[in-house]
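Follow-up to my post from last week.
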Amino acid sequence: MENPVLKIDHLTVRYGKTCEYCRNGGELDKNTCPHCKTVWACNDVDVSLYEGEILGIVGESGSGKSTLMKSLYFDFDITEGEGYLKNFEDGKSDIFAQSLQQKKYIKNHIMGMVYQNPMLGLRMDYSSAGNIAEKLIAAGHRSYDGMNERVAELLDAVEILQSRKKEPPKNFSGGMQQRVQISKALANNPAILLLDEVTTGLDLSVQAKVLELIRKIRQEFHISIMLVSHDLAVIRMLADRTIVMLDGKIIEQGLTDQILDDPQMPYTQQLVHSLL
Ligand SMILES: Nc1ncnc2c1ncn2[C@@H]1O[C@H](COP(=O)(O)OP(=O)(O)OP(=O)(O)O)[C@@H](O)[C@H]1O
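User reply:
Got it. Predicted complex:
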């Protein structure tokens, strides 16, 4: 296989101080140490994302999917692990070991994030155009005309009418808010888009539109996407490869068809069959 655009090695995120027992590999109760109660939200996770692919991440609630995504977007400090981006210092520098300024650079130029909760990704009181412009300014854009042009392109890409660009996202439906979030995430042509349960909570018909949009964006923007969803129909529709998480660990991965049609691990079999 070609070099990945993103490679994560041994990512671990813990909440708690740990004890002799869990530090030395003692068995956890799901993701929690039975002695010191430390939560191992992500536990020695390795992930590679390849150019132009959509990588699905599935698992039950609490399995560590959001922790993985938020770690990648530097929403908090990880406990252990390393990460490399093809587009950052030729993939030779650990992204988690960078200064705040470098992490901001990565967030503004190389990665875009769309959260399940639009309030985490958008300023609800700013205009939609203002939300996108904020991201452009963060990446160094200063020309008013240039930014206006880019905002118009992005709103077109996510099918939001130009006539609504001055309205704040708080006036929009859930599906439209997600589309503004997606346009903001795409503003600086990132190589990687992180999508965390972006269709959860939306009506089915609205979900379908957002999913179709993600498919279109992958083609038009030649972007690599990590897509968290607990909905296997979403994963089947969009993901080329899929990772299954349980209790903070990756327990199975492979081509999506393989994982969904011929799961090997008992947990994945249960997950797939419970949803058939
Ligand atoms: N600040 C925190 N302190 C302690 N534990 C936490 C904290 N944040 C997350 N966790 C725990 O980490 C584990 C992983 O949570 P995470 O949100 O990543 O799961 P998830 O798979 O995304 O679940 P969901 O689908 O419900 O969002 C859970 O057990 C959660 O309770």
